Amino acid sequence: MQVTMCPERAIMEHVTSRWGVLVLHALSNGEAWRFSELRRELELASEKMLTQTLRTLERDGFVHREVYPVIPPHVEYTLTPLGKGAASHLVALAHWIAANQPEVTQAQERYDAS
Question: Which regions span the lipid bilayer (predicted)?
Fold first, then answer.
């Protein structure tokens, strides 16, 4: 039997993927980023993975890709209003994790000791 994914789950996977989270976080400052700038910011992401992530987020309506008709090609990425909403929740979660990290670490140590 094949289990089908509901649309919400697929979107959740795109937004919360390893690179999806980092792309949304990088773009959350409101500035336009070129591909090479994002690649430097997310230094562990391969060019292929970053391209796939950006395309997925663009398809889902979170990222806007602006192509400027110049030579060499100039492309910039920004968040759409939908992307800004998603990014704000991810940034809030990141702040919560940072604030509660010591407590989580203590819980992990207690668990590992038992």
Answer: none
What's phi and psi for 72, nearest 5 deg?
-70, 160
User: Which three-class secondary structure state does DSSP give residue 17?
Assistant: coil
DSSP-H helix ranges across the chain:
7-16, 18-27, 35-41, 47-59, 81-113
- Name the percent of the chain lying above pLDDT 70: 96
Burial class for 91, CB neighbours closer than 10 Å (0-12, 13-18, 19+):
middle
Residue ranges per structural domain of the chain: 7-113
pTM: 0.83
For residue 112, give the 3-state DSSP assignment: helix
d(CA 12, CA 63): 15
- Those residues of the chain that have pLDDT short of 50 are 1
pLDDT at site 16: 87
